[in-house]
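For anyone still unconvinced, we reproduce a single protein record, the chain in one-letter code, the fold tokenised, and leave readers to judge:
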Amino acid sequence: MIKETKTTREAIIKRIYCDVCGAEINWQLQCSVAQCEKCGKDLCEKCIGKEIDTMGDYREVYCKECWEKGKKQ
């Protein structure tokens, strides 16, 4: 979830929040936001259910809910 806030100088600050727990994600430190491969939710580090090492530039992550659903199939 992305929320925009205007400051007194009219600069726009984008704040990104985890779609699972609502915690603010400091995406500037990570350079990108982890998104679930199945449902597309923005995830903070503690809400990632599984991260697969792809040896590439992009992270392949799944939220805990989607990872559990996939294991049952």
